Amino acid sequence: MSPDTFPIAVLASGTGSNLQAILDTVHGRDGIEVVAVGSNVADAPALERARRAGVETAAFPLADHSDRAARDTALADWIEGRGARLVVLAGYMQLLTPSFLARFPLGVVNVHPALLPAFPGLRAVEQALAHGVRVFGVTVHFVDEGVDTGPIILQRAVELPHAREAGEVFEQIHAIEHALLPEAIRLIARGAVRIDPADPRRVLLDR
Ligand code: GRF
């Protein structure tokens, strides 16, 4: 790999439509290479998508390790061994341990299907619907030790004042995610994303 490439790892637990968007629109362009796709689920469809794209994969089910700390150490070793400079959580449904995060400072990002800080955690779209919101959206953020609490990199909203079913919201949310997460990766890869030295909560973008 040439020195100006930007190798990334992606972690996914499920379908992997966000991974697919990364493979289709980011991988192999502007020096960005997906070098590893990992999962906590051995038969996650996301792993098959990666294999089809010729990307190395590995599964780290919790049951194969003594505890979460041991699993995350093995996962971090594997990612580091592939040379990744950024870890992208694309539907990775496990919390990462603080020691995993410490090995990738400002090097882990996540996509969340709500406008954070509203509706963190699981079933965000369902939470938003139950609350009766009229504006939904997507957030890409750095991962810290909290649940969906890290500094926000990009957000995009969509007005759906008449939405009643999660399915119709997800259709719009996924389309936004598939654009926003690749956009964030491109910005990070070209060094255009940094934390405001005056305010560690705020992300500065050089667009
Ligand atoms: C996405 O909606 C993402 O926001 C959430 O998990 C979902 C993953 O979808 N964190 P997919 O597996 O990428 O299709």
TrEMBL record:
Domain of life: Bacteria
Chemical reaction(s) catalysed: N(1)-(5-phospho-beta-D-ribosyl)glycinamide + (6R)-10-formyltetrahydrofolate = N(2)-formyl-N(1)-(5-phospho-beta-D-ribosyl)glycinamide + (6S)-5,6,7,8-tetrahydrofolate + H(+)
EC number: 2.1.2.2
Active site: H112
Enzyme class: transferase
Residue stretches making up the Formyl transferase N-terminal domain: 8-185
Keywords of this entry: Purine biosynthesis, Transferase
Residues noted as binding (6R)-10-formyltetrahydrofolate in the record, renumbered to the chain: R68, N110
Site feature: Raises pKa of active site His: D148
Pfam family, one: Formyl_trans_N
Coiled coil residues, start to end: none
SUPFAM superfamilies found in the cross-reference section: Formyltransferase
Biochemical pathway: Purine metabolism; IMP biosynthesis via de novo pathway; N(2)-formyl-N(1)-(5-phospho-D-ribosyl)glycinamide from N(1)-(5-phospho-D-ribosyl)glycinamide (10-formyl THF route): step 1/1
A GO molecular function held by the record: phosphoribosylglycinamide formyltransferase activity
Binding-site residues for N(1)-(5-phospho-beta-D-ribosyl)glycinamide, renumbered to this chain: G16, S17, N18
Family: Belongs to the GART family.
Function: Catalyzes the transfer of a formyl group from 10-formyltetrahydrofolate to 5-phospho-ribosyl-glycinamide (GAR), producing 5-phospho-ribosyl-N-formylglycinamide (FGAR) and tetrahydrofolate.
Protein name: Phosphoribosylglycinamide formyltransferase
